[in-house]
Fold this sequence. Notes:
Layout: H1 9-15, H2 42-49, H3 66-79, E1 89-94, H4 97-108, E2 113-117, H5 122-131, E3 138-142, H6 147-156, E4 160-166, H7 178-187, E5 191-195, H8 200-203, E6 213-217, E7 231-236, H9 237-242, H10 245-252, H11 258-269, H12 271-291, E8 295-299, H13 309-315, E9 323-328, H14 331-341, E10 346-347, E11 357-359, H15 371-377, E12 383-387, H16 393-406
Parallel strand pairs: 2-3, 2-4, 4-5, 5-6, 10-11
Antiparallel strand pairs: 1-7, 6-7, 8-9, 9-12, 11-12
Ligand LCS binds near residues 96, 124, 198, 229 and 349.
Amino acid sequence: xxxxxxxxxxSVAVHAGKRNKDQFGSHTTPIYQTSTFVFDDVEVGAxxxxxxxxxxxxxxxxxxxxxVEELERAVCELECYGLDRPEDYGAYAFGSGxxxxxTGILAMAKxxxxxxxxxxxxxxxxxxxxxxxALGISTSFVDMSDLFLVEMELKKNPETKLVYLESIANPxxxxxxxxxxxxxxxxxxxxxxxxxxxxxxxxxxxxxxxADIVVxxxxxxxxxxxxxxxxxxxxxxxxxxxxEAAIFRKNLGxxxxxMDAWLTLNGVKTLPLRMKKHAENGMKVAQYLxxxxxxxxxxxxxxxxxxxxxxxxxxxxxxYGGMIAFELIGGYESGxxxxxxxxxxxxxxxxxxxxTLIQHPASMTHSIVDEDLxxxxxxxxxxxxxxxxxxxxxxxxxxxxQALEIQN
Length: 408
Ligand code: LCS
């Protein structure tokens, strides 16, 4: 029998993050639901504060917590799956995706400029445009599907410290050429931060393509069950240290709580299994929508009609994910009618849960985005976004069919 040397990503996900047994031999991860940790004596406590050997391993749960650390190791292992030196990387978990993103940007782009993708999750876009300037960080937004524009923007802003993009953009489904953009970033001496929420490491591994920092809203596919808000940032330990990311997290205070970390860890174990089904259903639903006479356009990286289909096929593994954006021929009115008439699908924001969620970016998740930026990024009033769940694909399609039937 051939002996495999590299475990599958399914096996890594099930066992990721595990350390030695606790003192009771607990099989699953205990929830260390505690604010603080006991020191054996003053010396042990003082050494912990000085980060010296012999100090207590844990001090206070805003600085670190064993359950949270297990989640950090788990996501780190998945993002580093297949890399030559995964041990060089580390991760920090946060109480939300936005905490990971804002803390990460503040730590990595201190007092400098960010060149950001024009299509981004609404709150990320708002943070960069409206809050970050007061904190000493300026941003220019650019269409990252045009590498020439990215390069021009980098040349125009030599003080750029960070390039920021979403591997698959929310909600336009634009796929980023991470490899090419990483090369541009490196040539201009800036870091590349990638929000990998839509793709997850099951489909895209930004580190393999040259990214420096990966962030996630773990609220979505990684948690997977719609039970928890969370985020994570992964990068080389050296960069985490240099940027003082741990100090930023400690003092901004955005660490994840142990219960939330534990819920998210449960999601990690089945991430590949769920993503396989999300992607299978995503393709079926996208093909159905594309063939429907009332649908004007479908944005799904797996379809030949997607502007970056060839790029998606070269960087995505195991399929194309479960997110779809589309426009109906009847525009906004028809989209509203569809969303009001679905029965199996749920009208709600968020995504990446086991059940199918449908929402209207222009009036919901992206309502706060600057109007000009929305126009530039292609976030139109008629765009509908669907997060395809793991129900039977035929049931999701039947629900969309009856809802599309109703409108006229
Ligand atoms: N990054 C992406 C790509 C997201 O889609 C979201 C949230 C975040 C970051 C922020 O994560 P959070 O703080 O919520 O954990 N996206 C949402 C959405 O599309 N609908 O509701 C939330």
